[in-house]
Amino acid sequence: MCCCCDDEGCECRPLGFLLGLPFAFLALLLSIVGVVIWIIGLPLSCICPCCFCITVVVEFALGLIKAPILIMKWFTSKIPC
């Protein structure tokens, strides 16, 4: 019995993982951009907390940082066992 055909449902989906790798790589590059934006934006939001646009940019950067993991989860959920 393999790990993707057990009675509890499909837990590992190697095909979805392999299909998602190129997109996760692109998202990884975007997450590097997100890290740079986050490093620059975090001190700016501490200096001037009243500036709402800096906070939005920092939250967007955190979304970019999480993108590769979210993309891999999405791809593996869409491909059946």
Detail the topology: elements first, then pairings:
Blueprint: H1 14-47, H2 52-78
Helix pairs in contact: 1-2
What attributes characterize this protein structure?
2 helices; 81 residues; 0% strand; mainly alpha
Structure description:
InterPro entries: TAXIMIN_1/2 (IPR055283). The chain crosses the membrane at residues 23-44, 51-75. Keywords: Membrane, Transmembrane, Transmembrane helix. This is Signaling peptide TAXIMIN 1-like. By secondary structure, the chain is an all-alpha fold. The chain is 75% helix and 0% strand. Helix 1 runs antiparallel to helix 2 (52-78). The protein has 2 helices and no strands. The model has no long low-confidence stretch (mean pLDDT 77). It has one domain (17-78). The longest helix has 34 residues, at 14-47.
In short:
The chain has two helices and no strands. It has 81 residues and is mainly alpha-helical.
Spell the H/E element sequence: HH
Our measurement of the CA-to-CA distance between the termini, rounded to an integer number of angstroms, reads: 13 Å
**Total discrete domains:** 1
Mean pLDDT: 77
Number of helices: 2
Unreliable stretches, pLDDT < 50, 5 or more residues? none
Strand content: under 5%
> Which structural category fits the helices and strands?
mainly alpha
The percentage helix is over 70%
Shape, per Cα inertia axes? elongated
- What value does the Rg take, in angstroms? 18 Å
Beta strand count: 0
* Biggest sheet record: none
